[in-house]
Amino acid sequence: MGKLALAFLAFVLVAAGGVSLTLHHLNHFSAVAAADQGAGLAACMPVVGMPGVEDAATDPVSGLAWLSSLDRRERQKMSTVRGEIKAFDPDNPLDPASWRDRTGGVPADFAPLGIDVYADGQTHRLFVINAADRSVLIYTITRQGDLALIDTVRDGRLTSPNEIVAVGPKSFYVSNSTASGFDSVFSGLEFVAGLGNGSILFYDGNSWSEAARGLKFANGLAVSPDGATLYAAEMGGKLVRVYDRDPGLGTLQPERVIRLDSFPDNLTWGADGKLLVGAIPKPLQFAAHLRSDDEIAPSKLVRIDPGSGAVETLYLDDGSRLSGLTVGARIGGKFLLGSFAENKFLLCDSPVVTESR
Ligand SMILES: [Ca+2]
């Protein structure tokens, strides 16, 4: 969401009818436990100086974590601010190699959002959403661990690309959060009103198709290891949609939904075959946090068992440790917690269950 949209979101809340219902939907009246009430939080180490790690992807070949990093507040003020992609080694966080931009400065106008690794034994690639020009970048990962851009893919329907999941050397799904685009005043309205005009687009290596539509702010994506199921975070609906996937055609059929009590962002796979879901408990506080780093916003990481649909909370923070968490990723034996606008991420030994339902 752009600044304008976030400001408009607050305006809409006041102006719209059914304000109390909307505020209830946005969890405005629910409390979030203070950070020091979660015993597991002590096991987290902040890694400071890497801004806006909105997404992270574990590399199954190198064991490193790919990080999508951008000073997102500065970028809103100055469009020349450029993002970076890092390959972070959790065992050597101070190694300069963990802090180097791997893109070689390509492309120059770069605002990375969702990322995903593809590796099949022959090809080793990183797929990146570039919000700067609403494109999908495909990089080859070199033997030295750097990124060489080999393709840039666009489509007119990509008005607000958010998260990507690769399913082949050149094929992928991308979530388009809202048809009117992040910077439109209407995106805030759409989020609050719960209008469903987000979609999931599929690119088969040659052409685009719309695999799913009608999502309320489409966000995180994940495909099961057997390729037969796709999971999509429908942020505005506070749920994860489960689709049966045809691995040959790429088509999706709605199968069921898994409801959450907060607003899901990125999805990753844990080591245990469960989905890790970065979630925003309070979007109005999140919006305030995006405008100013003086404001904190709660963070949550939940784990979904895809078989039973059971949901458990792994990490809950009022925002004093990490505000606006968007992703939790398993990396080696650790968990990496990234956020949209903090100048740090957290590296945790093992989140401890603080509540479950
Ligand atoms: Ca996202």
UniProtKB/TrEMBL annotation:
Species in which this protein is naturally found: Aquisalinus flavus
Family statement drawn from the similarity comment of this UniProt entry: Belongs to the paraoxonase family.
InterPro entries linked: 6-blade_b-propeller_TolB-like, Arylesterase, Serum_paraoxonase/arylesterase
UniProt name for this protein: SMP-30/Gluconolactonase/LRE-like region domain-containing protein
Record key words, sorted: Disulfide bond, Glycoprotein, Hydrolase
UniProt superkingdom: Bacteria
Keyword set includes Hydrolase: yes
PANTHER family named in the record: PARAOXONASE, PARAOXONASE-RELATED
Gene Ontology molecular function: arylesterase activity
